[in-house]
Amino acid sequence: TLKSCRLLWAGHVEGIGDGRRALKLLAGKPDWKRLRGRPKIRWEGNIIWDLKEVDYEEDWKTLAQERVTWRAYVLVAMNPRVP
Asked: b/e for 10-30, b at 16 or more Cβ within 10 A?
């Protein structure tokens, strides 16, 4: 699914370290001003939203550093619980 692919990519980008372009793109903020209206959702906002759906409310960057735990959350996102 799109959610699990996004989480896999975010974990990979967080693991490669600072100074790389991919990390700058992930957390980047545009230099220009947006028009009035609802702000657009950024990649990092989507990642936070995806992790809230699998009951994780803390900082995603520290979770991504713990590879085994991160992978467990990605697997939960791949196979959502059916009520």
From this structure: bbebbeeeeeeeebeebeeee
